[in-house]
Amino acid sequence: MKAVLEPPAGRQGPGPIPQPLIDALDVAITRRLAHTLPGDRRAAGVGLGVELAQLRPYVVGDDVRHIDPAATARTGGVPHVRLHVPERALTTWLVLDVSPSMAFGTARRLKADVAEGVALVFGRLGIRRAGSVGAVVFGAGAPHVLPPRGSKPGMVALRRTLERGVSPDGQRDAGALADALQRSGRLARTPGLVVVISDFRDHQGWERPLGSLRVRHTVIAVEVIDPREAEVPAVGQLALIDPESGARVEVDTSSPRLRRRFAELERERRESLARELRRLRVHHVALSTEAEWLLELGRQLR
């Protein structure tokens, strides 16, 4: 049964996204792609480009500007033309988490708000220079796939997808991140950019499919966090509900031991995540709901 998505209560939205900051991020992303995808952004066919596709004798109708003087001299004056593989526009894939835990937030905005802003930023960057953007949305039943589209239709489709909201509490989908990464690997056939936007609280088997994506693509993992997830305040008896499973638990937050143990477990979890992303050579960006997420995104991508 397909999960019903809904905008979370307390939704603030990502806030303003100034164009100058988008331009600055474009430079940073272009540099990162140049370092990790050298010579791979090519398409089938012939045309303008830098990679040689064919060297053949000139025929009537060929562009005389493509005549190769060196090849012509080597063949006794028979004109030869050089045909090149054209440059291909980059495809950007967004792997977006809409699981119930993304509706959490205790600072400026919800984690879902920050994730929405990041998706819009990379969507706008993805359609530049005739590029296209697609998405795999997970955490609410089977992943929802948004086929790659360019220009205005691409952004309209992405905005409509983001407006669907997040999955209601208690509808946990264990292993959804791994499933979404595997599906992205099957869909993204040519080298490009893959941006994974999640709180990475799904611990089941995502490492291998993420590593497989990294072999062929530039991969950026954007972790969205909330400061309250790192520590429990001392407020006495507290009833908590896990948004993923719907389980309810009552704890005495006045206990220093409980608060210390909670902080240790969360710190170990985040250190393990950062260590695993380094091992996979995936660029890790951590954005908090209490910070200016767009400025922080630009700083960490430089």
Describe this structure in words.
This protein is an alpha/beta fold and 302 residues long. Among the domains are: 19-38 and 89-224 and 284-301, von Willebrand factor, type A domain (Rossmann fold), CATH 3.40.50; 51-85, no CATH class. The chain is 35% helix and 21% strand. It contains eight helices and ten strands. The protein has helices at residues 19-36, 69-74, 111-126, 151-162, 176-187, 207-216, 256-279, 293-301; strands spanning 51-57, 80-85, 91-97, 132-138, 144-150, 193-198, 218-225, 237-241, 248-252, 283-288. The strands form three sheets. It has a six-stranded mixed sheet, with helices on both faces. A two-stranded antiparallel sheet has the order 1-2. Helix 6 links the parallel strand 6 (193-198) and strand 7 (218-225). It is elongated and about 90 Å long.
Descriptors:
6-stranded mixed beta sheet, 21% strand, alpha/beta, 302 residues, 10 strands, two-stranded antiparallel sheet, Rossmann fold
Query: What top-tier CATH class of the domain at 19-38 and 89-224 and 284-301 fits best?
Result: Alpha Beta
Overall outline: elongated
Estimated radius of gyration = 24 Å
Helical coverage, percent range: 25-40%
What is the N-to-C succession of helices and strands?
Answer: HEHEEHEEHHEHEEEHEH
Oligomer: single chain
- Topology, number of strands: 10
Unreliable spans: 38-51
CATH topology of the domain at 19-38 and 89-224 and 284-301: Rossmann fold
CATH superfamily of the domain at 19-38 and 89-224 and 284-301: von Willebrand factor, type A domain
Main sheet: strand order: 5-4-3-6-7-10
- What is the terminal-to-terminal distance? 43 Å
Mean pLDDT: 85
SS strand fraction: 15-25%
CATH architecture of the domain at 19-38 and 89-224 and 284-301: 3-Layer(aba) Sandwich
Structural class: alpha/beta
Largest sheet: 6 strands, mixed
